[in-house]
Amino acid sequence: MTFTPHVEEQSKAVLSWKHLTVRSKRSPEKALLKDLSGNITGGFWSLMGPSGSGKSTLVNTLACRLTPGMWFEGEIRLNGRMYCLHDLKCMSGYVMQDDLMNGALTVWETLFYAGELRLPHDMTVEHRRERVEESIVEMGIGHVRDVVVGDSLHKGISGGERKRLAVAMELITHPVLLFLDEPTSGLDSVTALSLCSKLKSLAASGRTTVICTIHQPQSKLFALFDNLILLKAGEIVYLGPAGKAVSFFEKAGFPCPPMTNPADHLMDVITPELGEDADIAKAKGDRLKKYFTPKVVDLHAGSDRPAMPMRQLIPWPKQFHVLFRRSLQEHRRKWVQVATQILNSILMSILIGFVFYRIGDSQASISVRQAVLFFCVINQGIFASLETINSFPSERALTLRERAAGTYNVSAYFLAKTATDTLFQLLPPVVFSAIVYHLVGLQDTPEKFWVFTGFMILCQLSATSLATMVSCVARTTDLSVVVLPLFIEIGRLFGGYFLPPAQLPLYFSWLYALSYVKYTYVGIAQNELSGLKFTCLPSELVDAACPISSGEEVIKRLGLDFITRDQAAGILILLVVICRVVAYLGLRFIKW
């Protein structure tokens, strides 16, 4: 039995596929989709089937979003033409099962920034705002427009509202195709019905063809679908109008019992029961295959339709500007975190300041001065790196979604985020320096204070850049917090305090050269010791003279004169750049 799908006359897109087979590198001998053929025209389409039947695989194949390690054989066409992910980015939307959003932004801000990034750059601000309002009204989320989206730690909008917001973000661009992976997952029946009613209205308008996977919808929800693709073990057992599926199953010998949800009945037939004999399950499938005759697919279907509008990426400077403003807004909403960082700096500077209070200029102060300078470096590095380690991993899934949608270039996102992070990382070391410098009693001249502060800032930036590099390459927070301490401890061990440079074994010189701790310590030690005069108690005199009378002698004895203060600052800047370049490459190319 061959069915002609319900077609919206105004639909702009026809998706066709022929002899489509999908395999995975893990088990290439087993096909996930087996020689499928069919087409999708206008309307509201549902892909149903038991878990593992290939629903998401088919949608991801048609949307050119197969995960790495999977590939397909066969042909797929859009309006009779071959297409790729780049083409779909310019004309379609994809709503993932997980609602990945910026929890610190409001609903309106989320949509506005999405519009700023995805709508044509020559569109006026007023027109963009109209698109935002249109999407809000279309998805019925006007009552939460000024509510923060929220996350696992902060209450925000409900699950149903998040799902509708995710759809609204895609509707801003007026997509020709809208793919949704399990849009009703995690929603109650009322919320799921409300969402699908909105999708039905969207599809009925003819502007967008809606294609969604769904597991087992309620009867009211099932009645909304125009067309149905039913899959079992990677094979299509039904493709046609959703309203005719029950009669097809009845003719195949599987009548729907009275007072039974049609969707439940269809799923019961194609889903093997627990402990059911394999031969019986196979017989059911064979009977359905016998009655279902796949329609002959014309790969050139839709080729006579007008060319679809192709959305282009906005210019790179505009991407950076929008992403910078968005990141800045997120930081403002996370003021508690920023305040905590400053409070940590205040508390640690007071603690260090009173432990080493007014160390003076005696002979005993020489070793104490070394210790306090080194501890300042360690303190800034550890706190800064730990505060940064989750910065990129926490947003990784979100950025992958936005990149897959063709929202922006990775370089624009990376530079915008690191720029805003850097702005908020400047204040803590300044506060720390202002307190600890004067409590300890280091050389009280404006020039030396600001040089000390500058090195504390460079130390902070070096540590955060190192943490950023680790987090972008290691990918997850769990792995990052395991790897980062190794780098921190290596930096501390070869920091120039425990083992002076002159005593370092040659085979460790490469680790010594990479330690940001060393360059910061050498820089502030030279800054503090140069021009400093030491005094002696009578008991400390040796041959009626002070053993060490100047800071320059200390610098020379400790071997801290192998580079200048300015060179140390330059190397720290170079380390910041290198770490951030590696971090960018990790973010750009590592997607596993």
UniProtKB/TrEMBL annotation:
Stretches assigned to the ABC transporter domain: 15-258
Membrane topology: Multi-pass membrane protein
Coiled-coil regions, chain positions: none
Subcellular location: Membrane
Keywords: ATP-binding, Membrane, Nucleotide-binding, Transmembrane, Transmembrane helix, Transport
Residues spanning the membrane: 335-359, 410-437, 449-474, 481-499, 568-587
GO cellular component: membrane
Family annotation (SUPFAM superfamilies): P-loop containing nucleoside triphosphate hydrolases
Pfam families to which the protein is assigned, alphabetical: ABC2_membrane, ABC2_membrane_7, ABC_tran
Primary residence: membrane
Source organism of this protein record: Nannochloropsis salina CCMP1776
Protein name as annotated: ABC transporter domain-containing protein
GO molecular function: ABC-type transporter activity; ATP binding; ATP hydrolysis activity
